[in-house]
Amino acid sequence: MKIEIWSDVMCPFCYIGKKHFETALENIPYKDKIEVEWKSFQLNPDLSKTEVTSVKEYLIQAKGVSEEQVIGMNNQIAEMGKTVGIDFNQENSKVVNTSDAHRLIHFAQSKGKGNEIEEALFKAYFTDGKNVADYATLSEIGEEIGLNKTEVLEMLNSDAYVFDVASDILDARNIGVSGVPFFVVDRKYAMSGAQPVEYFVSALTQAYGKDHLQDNADNNGASCDVDGNC
Fold first, then answer.
1. DSSP conformational letter for 213
2. Segment 19-34, tens digit of pLDDT
3. Backbone angles phi, psi at 20, to 5 degrees
């Protein structure tokens, strides 16, 4: 069974959803028969690769929320993160264009390290406050999970995987992805948002048994939408 997951490095609910999904897999006896493929999605493809913005500045300027609202949102996400072992420090996160981070994800997947690079990039962005558009930083992150640092830099300094990232984003649009994380099972069933562990277990069990998933239309988990609202 193949599960495709659309997400963005700067989506907090994608990180939470990843943790819920992984816990669900541990509760499924046939997890070794499940193939996971991470797909690219950008909440804001117009962001600069060189100009760094704080989460507070980004939300105030781009989304029109107040500073008090930003603090409240960050605190709420931090509390949600604690329940799954994530140390959210969004006040230190550097908002940048994530297209090159997505190229690194594709490269890592080609080496069989898709899950590892997703975790490393989420941690780098949300916990460590690293610049995930900076090539030196990305190459170091890649090296941390066992990739060849020189090969990562060579890839980043080329146009490798640019088409793959764009193709994923177009694919998402074609299948109607309205928010991330978005999970697609065997191109038959879809689950949207950071669903609870129990939901993932039930849905995957039904899908594996060739039964239809319960209607997801009115059962969406927390997510970030196509306009970058989280």
1. P
2. 999 999 999 998 999 9
3. -60, -45
What is each CA distance from 49 to 97, 98, 104, 228, in whole angstroms? Answer: 5, 8, 15, 17
Closest CA to 202 of 216, 187, 218: 216
Cis peptide before 181 (omega within 30 of 0): yes
* Per-residue model confidence (pLDDT) at position 218: 43
The residue type of 147 is L
- Computed from CA positions of residues 93, 99, 102, 104, in that sequence, does the dihedral angle turn out positive or negative? negative
Compute the Cα dihedral for 1, 20, 147, 42 and give only its sign: positive
The pTM (predicted TM-score) of the whole model is 0.91
Burial grade of 215 (CB within 10 A; 0-12, 13-18, 19 or more): exposed
DSSP letters of 105-149?
Answer: HHHHHHTT-HHHHHHHHHHHHHTS---TT-HHHHHHHHHHTT--H
**Nearest-CA neighbor of 120 among 134, 108, 135?**
108
115: left (phi over 0), alpha (psi -120 to 50) or beta: alpha
